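Q: Could you fold this chain for me?
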Amino acid sequence: MPLPIPEPRAAGYTQTTRVPLYWARYGPEAARTILVLHGGPGAHHDYMLPQLLALADRHELLFYDQRGGGRSRTDDPTPITFRTQVNDLRKVVEEFHLEPLTILGYSWGGLLALLYALDAARDRTIRHPRRLVLVSPAPVSRPLRERFERELAARQQSPAVLALRAELQASGLRERDPDAYRQRAFELSVAGYFADPTRARDLTPFRVTGRVQQSVWESLAHFDLVPDLDTVRCPGIVVHGRQDPIPLESSEAVAAQLGVPLVVLEDCGHVPYVEQPDGLFAAIRGFLDKTDGLLDV
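A: Sure. Below is the predicted structure, expressed as structure tokens.
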């Protein structure tokens, strides 16, 4: 069963975005704030919980559901694009007066952080990130994304995953414990993201709004962020699982262009906060501790 998620210290909806966006704060009020960007696009923040709250011992974590997902769903028929999400992020940063700005982006959230940082590098009126933590960032070019899609599809149809699905169907769990059955069915729907599909457990279930996911990726067209990433100047760290279906080459290119360390976690797929939490949080804490003093300059 999914792990319990604590109540946030504070929560509400943004006042300055076109669509009100749900936000939640965790951790000590007086601590430095980390703005956390969830994956998707079209998902919601709480599937990163409770595990990511390991960082809330010494930092305040500010999450929000990006437009079109979770508690920020909208009936507005206007297509949601990557530009929509970047502009919303800019409004969130301004509304919460996030200075100095530390962004932690996971999966699509990592790509969103880079898109925002590229805008800030071009436009000095945009608050520039002072630190970037990129965890399992989404592919940074269309060819790399296509490689990821092929790899994930193959993994989802692998003998190991098919055997786990057959085992679940034969288990009788649907009748004995419908909630447990739904949880296990969800875990198997994302098993291809894990280094070992048998360990696809303890991940809080989430839903992706399909039309949002489609419209955002379509808006990126034949994108390639790599050539411009050297214009982003701030301390950062990139963390990537060795067995992530997203090509390691993508994160290698990001780290090289940003001039920041790349930490590769062994025996780890796309969900390091479930698969290798000790290694993930040690790397993030070490980076935050090392760079805390730079924020006062």
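A (continued): The chain has two domains: 10-147+208-296, 148-199.
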